[in-house]
Amino acid sequence: MRVKSKWSNKGRERTLDETGGAVAFILWRIAQQGLLNLENEGFQTESRSQRMDVIAEFLAFLLHLADRKQAEALDANERQEFITSLARHLANTMQENRADAEGTGDYRGPLIALINERGANYAECPMPDGEPGYAMKRYLGECVTAVMGEKDNQWITDQVMDVEVPETLKPLNKALRELFARAPG
Q1: Which residue has the higher pLDDT, 97 or 4?
Q2: What is the pTM for the complete model shown?
Q3: Could you tell me which residues come within 8 angstroms of residue 97 by beta carbon, excluding any fewer than 6 positions away?
Q4: Buried b vs exposed e over 76-94: b needs ≥16 C-beta within 10 Å?
Q5: Residue 44 burial by Cβ neighbours in a 10 Å radius (0-12, 13-18, 19+)
Q6: How far apart are CA 1 and CA 5, in angstroms?
Q7: Taken in order 23, 24, 25, 28, is the CA torsion positive or negative?
Q8: What is the pLDDT of residues 141-183, one digit of tens each?
């Protein structure tokens, strides 16, 4: 999956809110690709709502990874500002997409609650060499399996762990590296 992750005006400093918005856009694309990959492998979703639930699980995972990967590069206030912006942008995108699919309602709050719940669980998982370990990948696989339903569910976790997680890492790492690169000067 290719993502555009370079700023068009390279000489201008970006705020953490702008960076959070750009990363959110990329995470959304990565999550959509994860869902599409699962469907292309024959794992079926039954509704647009269920598809959004799968995307939400990928987003919670990806946001947590982005946070952990940037933890050393940002001080505590910067980290909070970045992650808050990232979560807010993701919640706004979820609101728009779910409202289109399901009608009027509050869809921001449930995504933020899911991000917080999953984040607490992911925080317990080790990240050897800065990459998600077995426990973290398995937890994502189980969360996706739970929202995908009964059909073929014994294989979904393996697909997520063995294929989808590795495929998310390259565009995620590239985006974080390039969007957080300091302008020359």
Answers
A1: 97
A2: 0.91
A3: 52, 107
A4: eeebebbbebbbbbbbebb
A5: exposed
A6: 12
A7: positive
A8: 999 999 987 766 778 999 999 999 999 999 999 999 988 875 4
Short-list 133, 139, 131, CA closest to 57 = 139
Q: Average pLDDT, stretch 28-57?
A: 94
- Least Cα distance to 144 among 1, 66, 65, 39 occurs for 39
Computed over every residue of the chain, the mean pLDDT equals: 89
* pLDDT band, very low/low/confident/very high, at 17 (cuts 50, 70, 90): confident
**Token pair of 51 as six digits:** 């598809």
Which residue has tokens 């390279």? 10
- 9: DSSP letter: S
Give the 3-state DSSP-derived string for 154-183, with helices as H, strands as E and coil as C: HHHHHHHHHHHHHHHHHHHHHHHHHHCCCC
List all residues 6 or more positions away from 79 whose beta carbon is below 8 Å from its beta carbon. 67, 70, 71
Q: How many residues does the chain have?
A: 185
Residue pair 86/141 in contact (Cβ under 8 Å)? The answer is: no
Chain position carrying tokens 């302008």: 183
